[in-house]
Every structure is written in C-alpha cells, then in structure tokens.
Amino acid sequence: MSIQTLPKTTKAVSRIDSERRRKLATSEPETSAELLWKILTDEAYYLETCCQVKHIKHGSLVPFKFNIAQKDFYEKYWLPNNPKIIMPKPRKMGFSTQIIGLGSHAAQYTEGLIFRLVAHNLNTAIELNKTVKLLYDQAWGYFESLGERPEYYLPIRNFDDKEQTFFKKQQSAIIVETARAAGVGQSDRTDILYLTEYAHWHNAKESYKGLKGSMPMGGANNRIIIDFNANGIGNDAYDKYQAAKRGESGFTPVFYGIYDCPDVYEPEFIKQEQIDLSDDFPAVYPSNDEELWLKSDKAVFNWGDIVECRDDRYFCDVCPTDQLRTFEYFHGVDTASGRGDGDWQVMKGFALVEGTMWEAYPPIRTRIPEDVFAGEVDRIARLFPGVLTVEMNFGEAVMIELRNLQTPGLARFKRSRAKAGKQKREYGFWTSENSKRTMIKDLQRSLRDGDIILVSENGRTELRQFEWQPDKQNEDTQKLAGAPQGKHDDEAMATMLALQGLKQKPVELVW
User: Which CATH architecture has domain 306-510?
Assistant: First the structure.
C-alpha cells in the first residue's frame, strides 16, 4: 500500500533504515515516524493498537484484539491478498468487524482506493456504517490520548454521511449501500468489495454481476469478500460456496466452526449449550459446513431426517430377482411437456418392505415426447406391479397414453367438481395448493418416523432444496413450497406422489 497518501510524513518515514524496519516488524515503535510506518504497513497492528470495538457478548467498548479465528483468517486469507473469498458467517466471531477494519485501513492509506460494503437491507447498512465510523473515531481518540496530533497519523475525513466516508487528499472512500439500489454497481468504481448476508439478497446474481463489473480489470487491489448466514440452499450464496468447494468458481471457500475459536466459545459454554439444545446443537453451532444447513426456516424438509433415511442400495439391487414380484410397489409420476428447456419427467418407485417404503429402482428422469415417456412408465409399472400415481396438472397426454396402453395399477383419486357439487374419482392425482400441503405433511411425517428409505442422490438434493416460497403479493408470507428459481423439484414431487398412493390405499385401480 502506498505511503504517498500522507505526503507530509513521507520524509520522516523514509528515514527509518531497512534494519530498523525489520526490527519494527516484531517490536514496538519508539518514535512518531516509526509509529506511522508501523500503522501504514501493518493493518493488524493498527486495528489492535489504535481501535476499540464493541464486545461480542456484553457490548461495551474493548480493545480490538483478534481472536484465534480472526488471526487465522488474517494470516491465511487476507495477507496473501486472496482476490475472492466466500465464507458462511459463524455466530459471534467478529468477522464482519474485522473485514470492515481491514478494508477501511486500505481505503485510509491507499491512494484512490474505494472500499464498498453492500448489505441486503438498510438496517444492516446503517449498522455497518456505524462500525466504519467507530473504528475511525476510536483511532482519532487514541492518538489524542497520546498527546499526538491525530492528523499526523490519520487522513482527514472530508465527507462523512450515512453512505460514504471520503478522504479528499487520497481521493479514496468507504461506501456503504444496499443491494436493492437500482443499477447498483453498474457505473461506480470499486477496489475492495464486501457483500454481507448475501443469502438474503433478492436478485443476487444480477446484483453481483453489476457490482463485479464496477471493479477495474486487473486491479492490483481488487478483492471480493462474500459472507452469508445459512438461509436454505436455494440461493446464489449456497451455489457459489458449493462451486468454490469444487474449485469451479475462482472463490476460496472459508469456514470456521465452533471449535475453531475456543477463546470465544469456551468449553463450559459449549457443554451447556449441548445440554440445552440437544439434537439442535449442530444446526445452531455448526462445527463443519455440512451442519450449517441442518436447520433452516425456509427448508420444508429437515435435512437431518433426510440423512437418517438415506441408503446407497436400491431395493432391486438387494432383493433376489425371483422375489421382486412378491412385494407391492408404489410409483409416483411427475409429468411435464418433455421440452429440452422445461421441467423433468420423473418416475420413482418404492417397495413396501415390512411397513417401510424403500426406493426400488433408479428413477426415470428425462425429457422426451410424452407418448414415449408414457411407454417407459408402462414398462416399469409392469416390472414392479403396484399402485401408479400420476400427477394430473399437466399430464393429460401421458394419462391418455397410459390408459391406451392399459397400464396396470393406474390409480383414481377423489376430486371435487364445483359444477357437480360432489366428489368424483378421476384418473391421476390433482395437485393444488391444499393438496400439496397435505403431500408435504405426509412426507415430513414419513421422514421424521424413518418410514421411507431414499437412495437417489438427486432425489435427496431436491428434497433438501424444497423450500417455502414467499407469496408474490407479500414477501414476508410463506405461502407456497417448491424449488427455488433455477432449480427443479420434479423428483421430490414424484416421491410425494408415490406416498399418496400408499396413503390412499385401497384406491380404485385399473388392472
């Protein structure tokens, strides 16, 4: 970083010879020039010596001393100038304050640098800006307490409002804003970009593109740091983090769990929380980044229940071939048009084994002409005879072909007809908002009680990302459930349809 941002001190700093500089790296400065040099070149020293922060537990001001996890982050990820970092946000470890401090130091002492913080809502942005001001004000007060002139060590803050802190002489700034601003990032310059609580952002992908586009190509100071709280898995934060773990996004995934910071989470505290929270402890205080998503207010199905119902073997791989037809099967069929850019056509089947629904065979998951798909459904239904439940919202063509083929086990379910004024049995299962809620409750109960065995990895993933969706008229109301935008829930729906066939038995069948 450039010491040219404080021209009047440059000569004093330059008088510190190279040998003294090496000693200063591990010792306390003895002169004003040495102190300035130390502050300019060592962000951690500046923050821990000159700044105070609110204590993470009781809120009073205390010296900003990095905890174990913060030290690790600073040394492993910040000092090497890692250009892209994404990290799930652990509870009460102080990473937001640390990133704000490090980015603010860069803006204060690097000519022309713009540090931009972007939050998902105004309240968070206001709190972030309070931290920016607090760190600067505490440093100013520290130098006054030494009897020194603060302006010798700190750049003058020329412009300060709820969105921006501007340093005129350096032409640098710290900007705090929200992701909901129209055209955010499209025309503004950014060098260090900190996106916080990213999982809660609306239109996250588009906002990210605009903000990233504001960064100079090949900029020496370019950094992007994304943090987020687990908010289900149907969001861009989860996608970016998983892609980072696979080495596909250019981001470095960073995670710190409860056992990585013993000076914050002391053993006595952990022990008491384990007693109080019991089975919920890993979800509230994750020790790894899988436990992070065990519990989510948006998730329809509990991931812990899904894991408990997991097996690696389909029933047809375990059961002797000559005994396969001695069991009863329940199939679910989620229909679709078969277009290449549309939903998937899915058929899943479960064998009823001593009261447990065991996934029987690898699911059909395809996009083909509807009559061809119906032929595949017919073939499987004859191999594994039982109850065949077909969704009817968009499946007329499939149902017609199945009836023409006289597919065995095709079920009819009761449906209310407004004009007739009474219920009538019809082919297929009509999904509506009400019937879908019933389907969800039935599968939740089966998962919770361990009455179903899931094998398909994609099927488990779809159940995991099956989330409550906000009402379009009121985003605070969770009205519908299904896959988030850009994902699919067809295999999850087929699972629930198969379960309805079991629940409704005996149903009227066509043999």
Answer: 2-Layer Sandwich (3.30)
